[in-house]
Amino acid sequence: MTNADDSHLSSTSSQTGGTLPLIDRAGMFKDRIAITTANSTHTYGELAIAAQRIAGALLGDKMDLQEQRVAYLVTPGFEYVAVQWGIWLAGGVAVPLCISHPRPELEYVIQHSQASIVVSDRAHEYPLSALTHALQVVYWSISHCMTHPIKDLPPICPNRRALMLFTSGTTGKPKGVVSTHAIIQAQVTSLVTAWEWTSADRILHFLPLHHIHGVINVLTCALWSGAQCHILPKFDAHEVWRCLKKGDLTLLMGVPTIYIKLIRAWEELPDWEQKQVITRCSQMRLMVSGSAALPVQVLQTWQTITGQMLLERYGMTEIGMALSNPLHGERRAGRVGQPLPLVKVRLVDESGVVVPEGIPGEIQVQGETIFLEYWHDPHATSQAFQDGWFRTGDWAVLDDGYYQILGRFSADIIKTGGYKVSALEIEEVLRTHPGIDDCSVVGIPDCEWGERVGVAVILKPMAELSLSDLRQWCKERLAVYKVPTRLINVVEFPRNPMGKVIKPAVKPLFTDE
Fold first, then answer.
1. Which CATH architecture has domain 6-179?
2. I need a labelling partner for 133 at 20 to 30 A (CA). Which of 67, 402, 438, 476 fits?
3. Any bridge partners for residue 132, and if so which?
4. Which fold has domain 413-512?
5. Domain-by-domain residue ranges, the chain?
6. pLDDT at residue 18 above 50?
7. Comparing C-alpha atoms, which of 255, 235, 262 is closest to residue 295?
8. CB 206 within 8 A of CB 232
């Protein structure tokens, strides 16, 4: 093995054999700014050098990590990306940890992924060093890795395992979703093509970096394109508006909960600042919403405030992004558009028969963007596919060429009195009620009906709502079998880190009435 001077690092291709296109491309943009934070600015060249130092530290005396799992807990920013790239350059599988997770959940991911090395920044050094000692796993601090000399790195073929993200666990224990370098490249290529990313783009990033939305849609697409990514350590509505006011951003991506919080924060701004924000936002080229259903009311309010119609898309950890409203052309409220490049989509009934347009069915996806496997769970991996198509568990209907999501069959499709009812459809109507701030509709087991429609609501300040009043209001807007028969008031909903309501945790709330 040989050491190399930093001055020789015009690109990473000499270190990787040209086998990791994402990182090799950094050489094309070496003098361009890659990552900015509130206190720092870093170029693509600096990122490549840091990643190679980290790779050398992870390798130690080894020639290749050979797909060893490396878990890392790092505050979003330059060091996060350097660690991720360093793991890949060393031949490892990157396993990002969530900075907001308590110790038991971190322990679960480290153990389930069978990580042999754990890396953290200084902010997380104490809890991680203690945890890794207890688990008898090797621990490295980034500060140590950054001082390591650069060395020759192993060639990495595209079909090697590269990334393990964990599902949200809304239907059971989180599963480790494994993707290869080729799969990641396909996911990125699909989005860069559809949304026309370029090196002139500048995106604000505040999404969790253990989730596909933050890791692939925002961070990796930006870095593939040579764009600039301004990273906030966490979401803060007022800080987001401050960044948007500068007028140098071209892209914004978030989840419905974030857009709701941004709308509320905007309402608190003085008139002059609201007008300034409207001007700046209207100059941006794209704003995207995903990871959960976007209420039509939120889309309409956002468009009124910013002049931007949010582009709603559909995807999940196992498939990357599959459906998207068009960048150019008609974006339809309550619809998630059409298949993205490199992706095939079909709808099938419960027997696995393909259904025609206008008939609800399960979304099944096929293409180069589909994950490799659930880690160490061949049975779950096998069960997830039907004739080579991935079974998403989400139901939708194709309406005039655009897909409309009806919800997860296990959580959002309520079987009541012989009807299949979409909880998302009912929620959309209930959110227009003057006294309801937010709601979650679930199926409550019932001997006579199979399931009854139950709704948990968060009421607006000073609002009151009885079941009889709600039912009367709903009957003017919904078919009678869709009208809720159970109602509870709650202060907040159980949510995952992406803000999505955990419906299996909502159902038990009705037993406490």
1. 3-Layer(aba) Sandwich (3.40)
2. 67
3. none
4. GMP Synthetase; Chain A, domain 3 (3.30.300)
5. 6-179, 413-512
6. no
7. 255
8. yes
